């Protein structure tokens, strides 16, 4: 733990964090880990009832400790109007953003390139790449020196897996975007972390590979712990691309 902080006064206490795709998997685990650090949270996703449930869960978990503010707001990251509406609420409630975790993403059934329907390709690119761009662009207007951006990219950002062309392409593009963003924001003192987790036990495998061996995968909580540790580094240090893999090796 950094000098000058204690368990009673976590270093992220009072910070404001936005997590997209926060209702399940890695996004939910990161939201829980940030709540444990006493971060104020903005949680987004497309399932409004799930957002309300998660908001109640996190508020209840912190009821006996330092109170945190939690804003749940549905958002479709593919839609510029929906993103604008989200950030109007953020400006009204907090008027700043210290941490952005771009986690919203989708996969597609395992299909060779000649079998992928264009609407499937388009939906994956719009969510995983265009959505990240739209949220980032809106967030930069309310982020200041000392802020941190974490983009969940997947190990597919620098490797390829057959049958996953749209997913691979979206994540490779998101890595290029993330690396460019990092260089642009260095002079402004905003850190950019590319998160590249390997196989993690989340619902995305129901689409990608329903029979995948879940027992060999990492838990979302493990990935979330690594993300929080990276955010907690002193301002003069950063993790640029955080690659986390199961110790058991490839599936």
Rg value: 17 Å
Q: Please estimate the helix content.
A: 25-40%
Order of strands across the biggest sheet?
3-2-1-4-5-6-7
- Structural class of the secondary elements? alpha/beta
Order of H and E elements: EHEHEHEHEHEHHE
Total helix count?
7
Describe the structure.
The N terminus is likely disordered. Helix 1 links the parallel strand 1 and strand 2. It is globular and about 50 Å long. The chain has 251 residues and is an alpha/beta fold. The two termini are 34 Å apart. It has one domain: Rossmann fold. A seven-stranded parallel beta sheet has the order 3-2-1-4-5-6-7, sandwiched between helices. The protein contains seven helices and seven strands; from the N terminus they run E-H-E-H-E-H-E-H-E-H-E-H-H-E.
List keywords for this structure.
251 residues, alpha/beta, Rossmann fold, seven-stranded parallel β-sheet, 7 helices, 40% helix, disordered N terminus
List the helices and strands and how they pair.
Blueprint: E1 16-19, H1 25-36, E2 40-43, H2 48-61, E3 70-72, H3 80-93, E4 99-102, H4 118-140, E5 148-152, H5 165-185, E6 191-197, H6 205-208, H7 220-231, E7 241-244
Parallel strand pairs: 1-2, 1-4, 2-3, 4-5, 5-6, 6-7
Helix pairs in contact: 1-7, 3-4, 4-5
